[in-house]
Amino acid sequence: MLTLARARAHAVVVILAFAAVYTFGLVRRDGMIDGFGHVIGGDLLAVRSAAAIVLDGRGAELYDFSVQAAYQQAAIAPQRLPGLNPFVSPPFVALLAAPWTFLPLGPAFVLWTALLLACLVAALIVLSRAAPLTGRHWPSALLLSLSFYPVLEGLMAGSNSLIELPIFALILLSLRSGHEVRAGALLGLQLYRPQLALVPLAVFAVKRRWRILSGFAGVGAVWMLLSLLVAPHALLDWLALGPLLSRMIFEKGMPSALFASVYALFLLPLGPEHFAIAVAAGTLVSLALLATLLRVWAGPWDPGAEAFGLRFAMLLMVAPLVSQYLQLHDFALLILPALLAAEYRLTHWTPDEWRLVSLVLAVVWIVCLVGPAIVTRVVRLPLAPLAGLLLGGVVLRACRAAAAPLSLGR
After folding, report:
1. CB-hemisphere CA count at 13 Å for 348?
2. pLDDT tens digits for 120-147?
3. Cβ–Cβ under 8 Å, residues 148 and 332
């Protein structure tokens, strides 16, 4: 049942269904409020409003949510803002978004969507060099990726999450070619969503890859200087938000069903009354995942080895799962480890093993598609992180299989 042809057919159906629903919402829109009462491109509105705050010389108030709400309301006036979409990115992101303030929100969202689609295409093309067997099917990979709900949700929201795909694909390619400083600089670019940069940074630090860390530090220093231009205390204000991010899942109007890290597995069922217990449980699970990841990366550093791509895939699995503040659109990153695992399958796994992998990939696809609705209406247990853990288990199995011949050889 899980053939590529059928998968493409299912992908087309999902894409057409979402396109029809989204078009219906746009046709019935009132200004920048769609027919369902949501801001069109809400995430872009948040970043664009943050840039406007900085350009108006009010960088010191960048993380004042009442100021953010006022700017967002002004951007969609005369319609009423249905709720604040808080800007919680590092301060330099507001400066980088400045060019988008010179366009009306509607045209800006159209161009922004085109940029996000270009990032997805670029990531698949770049990864095809590191995974040439699956790369031959990149048009099919693109079609399947476009039907993956984290990608659809990110496009509809105007999230910048898809930019992470070409960044991490280029990091893998740079490591494969021995350009470690470049890989570190690329990882520094990922600081625009720092929750996904911390785990790779920890792995490279443990592996003592000083050239990677130096490239990362160089780009990080540039971001720090840009943040100082926003306001002298902008970085401190942003860091002060850290303890609040985990509690945002309980804020009124927050799409709690879209939270997708292992912390959400405990926060959502236990509720705000047991916040400390939930955070402690999420931290323990996160530490266990990090320990597993470091075991996968144990041994000599050999970017040319076949197992290196699988190790990198495992890194990309753990990075989103252990983040305290992560929504479903960041699960678009799972496209890369899925392709890297498929690359290994094409030369090593038996048909029975591939059937298992195909089933897991299908489960992840379905869970991400219907999971938010189930969490909202049936049970307050996030399903997406469970699907992520399931895919992580498949990648871990591939890592162990790839490492076994090396152990026998030694």
Report:
1. 19
2. 999 999 999 888 888 888 889 999 999 9
3. yes
pLDDT at 404: 67
E strand or H helix that includes residue 148: none
Percent with pLDDT over 70 in the chain: 98
Q: Long-range contacts for 142-148 (Cβ within 8 Å, ≥24 apart)? A: 143/8, 143/11, 143/12, 143/15, 144/7, 144/8, 144/11, 144/365, 145/120, 145/332, 145/335, 146/11, 146/15, 146/120, 147/10, 147/11, 147/12, 147/14, 147/15, 147/365, 148/332, 148/335, 148/365, 148/368
- H helices, E strands: number in the chain: 20, 0
What pLDDT, in 10s, does the model give residues 70-128? Answer: 999 999 999 999 888 899 999 999 999 999 999 998 899 999 999 999 999 999 999 99
pLDDT of amino acid 407: 47
Q: Which residues neighbour 76 within 8 Å (Cβ) at sequence distance 6 or greater?
A: 31, 32, 33, 39, 45, 105
DSSP lists the bridge partners of residue 259 as 327
Residues 6+ apart with CB under 8 A from 203: 293, 294, 297, 315
For the chain, what's the residue count? 410
How is residue 10 written in tokens?
């299912």
